[in-house]
Specification:
The protein is of the alpha+beta class. The protein has helices at residues 6-18, 33-48, 90-104, 130-136, 143-150, 159-165, 194-198, 236-254, 291-309, 332-345, 361-364, 391-413, and strands at residues 21-22, 25-26, 51-55, 61-65, 71-77, 113-119, 181-189, 202-208, 210-219, 223-224, 260-269, 275-276, 279-288, 315-321, 328-329, 350-355, 370-375. Helix content is 36%, strand content 24%. Strands 3, 4, 5, 6, 7, 8, 15, 16 and 17 form a nine-stranded mixed β-sheet that branches. Strands 11-13-9-14 form a four-stranded antiparallel β-sheet. Strands 1-2 form a two-stranded antiparallel ribbon.
C-alpha cells in the first residue's frame, strides 16, 4: 500500500528550512552560497531516494528515476524572495522526494518512473523561471543563453559570473526528454487566503492567471505650491490619483471575484512639499484567468486614457509595457486525477481554483501536460518570514499528491 512517512516528510522540510534560516523565514537567493549548499543537500536526498541526481549548468537539481518511462515529473523551486517563507516552492520539491521514496517502498508503484526537480531562480533573482525555461527550451531558442549573458541581480551581479562562482559555468544544462516526460505535477502552498477562508484543505488548480504590467506617465506643469491657485493648477499627482479612482470603477465593472489589479508604485516629480508635481508615474499590474477579460481591461484602460486626455490640464500616456503573460490552463485529465484523490482522502474539503501567482508549471505546460495542487497558507500570507501552513495540511497534501501521481502513471501505462 502506498504510504507517506509524515515524520520523514516534515523532517526534510525542516532541514531544508535551516539553509538560510532567518528568524521564522528563509533567505536563500538563487546561486548564493547557501542556495548551492541546499542544492547539494537536495542531490543527497534525491540519491538516497533512489534517483540519479545532479545539479545542471544553470543550477536546477534534477533527480531521475532509474525506471524506464513514461515518467511523471514532480517539481517546484527552492530559491526564495529576499524576505522569504520556508514553504514557498520548497514544499513541492520535498513532496517529490517523499513520493519517490514512497513509490519505491510500495510493490504497486515501485516500477513507475517518477522524476523530481528543483528549478533554479523561479523568484527572479537574476532571470525569473530560469530553470524551467532552460529545461523546456526548444533547439535554437536563444532566450536562455541571452539571459545567461545579460541578466543581473539587483546588486548588479551578472548571472554568468554567479554561475561561474557556483562552479556551474561548464556544466551541461538538463533538457526535457519528450519521449520520457509525459506529465508534470507541482504541489505548492496557495500563497493566498481563499482556502482558509472557505474552510478547505486542498485546491486543484484550474488555470494560472495571465498578467499585464504597464507604467503610466502623467504630465502637468511644475509650479509653486503656495502661489498657484487651485483653479489653474496642472497637478500631475492629483491627476494620477483621480485617474486611479476612475480606473477602479471601470475595472470593477469588468471583474469577477478572482480579478485583481494593483498600483504597486507611485513617483512624483519633484516630490517636494512646496512644489506642484509636474510629472507623475505609476506602475500598474492586473491579473485574471481569462484572456478575454484581460483584453477587455486593456481596452477599458485605453478608453480612460483617451477620455482623460480630452480634458484640459494633465495628460497621461503609457510609458512602457512588459510583454503580456497569457493565462495557462492546467491539463483537464491531470486535474481529474487530483480531484479524485482529494475527494477520496478529504471528501468535501477541496475545491477547484485559479492560481493568482505565477509558477514554473506555466512554463512546463507549454511542452507537457501540467497540473498543480494547493494547500492552505495560514492567514493567506506568503513572500514573508511568517509564511506557514499547518502540519496536518502539509501531510494531507502529500498524501493526495502521491495518490494522484500513482493514478497519473497508471493512466500512462494503460
Amino acid at each position: 500500500m502506498l504510504k507517506i512517512d509524515s515524520s520523514r516528510l516534515l523532517g526534510d522540510l525542516r532541514t531544508l528550512r535551516s539553509f538560510g534560516a532567518t528568524g521564522p523565514g528563509v533567505v536563500r537567493l538563487s546561486l548564493s552560497p547557501v542556495d548551492m549548499e541546499a542544492r547539494r543537500w537536495l542531490v543527497e536526498r534525491m540519491t538516497d531516494a533512489g534517483l540519479d541526481a545532479s545539479i545542471d549548468g544553470v543550477g536546477t537539481v534534477l533527480g531521475r528515476s532509474r525506471n524506464a518511462g513514461p515518467a511523471l515529473l514532480i517539481g517546484s523551486h527552492t530559491d526564495t524572495q529576499p524576505t522569504g517563507g520556508w514553504l514557498d516552492g520548497a514544499l513541492g520539491v520535498i513532496y517529490g522526494i517523499e513520493i519517490a521514496r514512497a513509490f519505491a517502498e510500495c510493490d504497486e508503484t515501485k516500477h513507475f518512473a517518477l522524476d523530481v526537480a528543483s528549478w533554479i531562480d523561479e523568484e527572479g533573482t537574476f532571470a525569473g523561471f530560469l530553470g524551467s525555461r532552460s529545461f523546456v527550451a526548444n533547439a535554437g531558442d536563444a532566450s536562455v543563453d541571452a539571459s545567461i549573458r545579460t541578466a543581473r541581480s539587483r546588486e548588479g551581479v551578472l548571472l554568468a559570473d554567479a554561475l561561474k562562482s557556483a562552479g556551474l559555468a561548464d556544466v551541461p544544462r538538463v533538457r526535457i526528454d519528450a519521449s520520457r516526460h509525459k506529465a508534470y505535477l507541482e504541489p505548492h502552498i496557495e500563497q493566498g487566503g481563499r482556502l482558509e477562508a472557505r474552510g478547505k484543505s486542498l485546491g486543484v488548480v484550474t488555470t494560472i492567471v495571465g498578467i499585464r504590467e504597464l507604467t503610466l506617465r502623467f504630465t502637468g506643469q511644475r509650479n509653486h505650491a503656495g502661489t498657484t491657485p487651485m483653479s489653474i493648477r496642472r497637478d500631475a499627482g492629483a491627476g494620477l490619483v483621480a485617474f486611479i479612482a476612475r480606473m477602479n470603477d471601470a475595472f470593477g465593472q469588468l471583474a469577477d471575484a478572482d480579478t485583481v489589479w494593483t498600483v504597486g508604485r507611485i513617483e512624483l516629480d519633484p516630490g517636494s512639499f512646496s512644489v506642484v508635481p509636474g510629472r507623475a508615474e505609476m506602475s500598474l499590474q492586473f491579473r485574471d484567468a481569462s484572456a478575454a477579460r484581460l483584453d477587455a481591461m486593456e481596452r477599458a484602460l485605453a478608453a480612460l486614457i483617451d477620455d482623460f486626455n480630452a480634458r484640459d490640464g494633465v495628460c497621461v500616456e503609457i510609458a512602457s509595457s512588459e510583454p503580456p503573460e497569457q493565462p495557462v490552463v492546467m491539463d483537464a485529465a491531470l486535474q481529474a486525477h487530483l480531484a479524485n484523490a482529494a475527494e477520496a482522502l478529504a471528501p468535501g474539503q477541496w475545491e477547484r481554483m485559479p492560481s493568482g501567482a505565477s509558477h514554473d508549471a506555466q512554463v512546463i505546460a507549454h511542452r507537457v501536460p501540467a497540473s498543480m495542487l494547493f494547500v492552505p497558507s495560514i492567514g493567506g500570507v506568503s513572500h514573508d518570514f511568517i509564511e506557514d501552513t499547518a502540519e496536518a495540511h502539509i501531510v494531507l497534501g502529500c498524501e493526495v499528491a502521491a495518490r494522484a501521481a500513482a493514478d497519473m502513471l497508471r493512466a500512462m501505462h494503460a
